[in-house]
Amino acid sequence: MGEAGDIVAVGSANQSGQANGYVYTFDPVSDSLTKMADLDTRLFSSGYGAAVRPDNAHVAFSHPGVPYVSIYDVTSGSPTKLADPAVLPTTNARGCAYDPSGRFLAVAYGAAPYVIVYEYDGANYVKVDDPDIPPTGSGMGVAFSADGTIMAVSHNTAPYLSIYEVGESINAEGAPYSPHSSRRARGDYRAYGV
Question: Is the pTM of this model over 0.70?
Answer without folding.
Answer: yes
